[in-house]
Amino acid sequence: MASVSKGTGNVSIRRWISVIALAAVTATFLSGCSESLPLNQLPDITKLPEKVLGKDEQQGKVNEMINRGQTHQNEAAKEIENSK
């Protein structure tokens, strides 16, 4: 019986060593990635917009964007037809 518990203890120790090694490799990888990310390309979220659009203004902007999208699609279709 003593040899069974001793073997189980060795497996447990090996498992913990594997977990610690994996954690060390992961930490090394993540520290290398964080140093390579340029922080100056992140958006500036400290500036708030001066004005927030009301519900009617939001709907107007959405409609404007939909119209621009439809116009763009129509122009693209015309360009494709003209190129054939």
Describe this structure in words.
With 84 residues, the chain is mainly alpha-helical. 76% of the residues lie in helices and 0% in strands. It contains two helices and no strands. The radius of gyration is 30 Å and the shape is elongated.
Brief overview:
By secondary structure, this protein is mostly helical. The protein has helices spanning 2-36, 55-83.
Keywords:
0% strand; 84 residues; mainly alpha; elongated
Describe how the helices and strands are arranged.
Layout: H1 2-36, H2 55-83
Structural class: mainly alpha
Q: Distance N terminus to C terminus?
A: 85 Å
So what's the overall shape?
Answer: elongated
**What Rg is obtained from the alpha carbons, in whole angstroms?**
30 Å
N-to-C series of helices and strands: HH
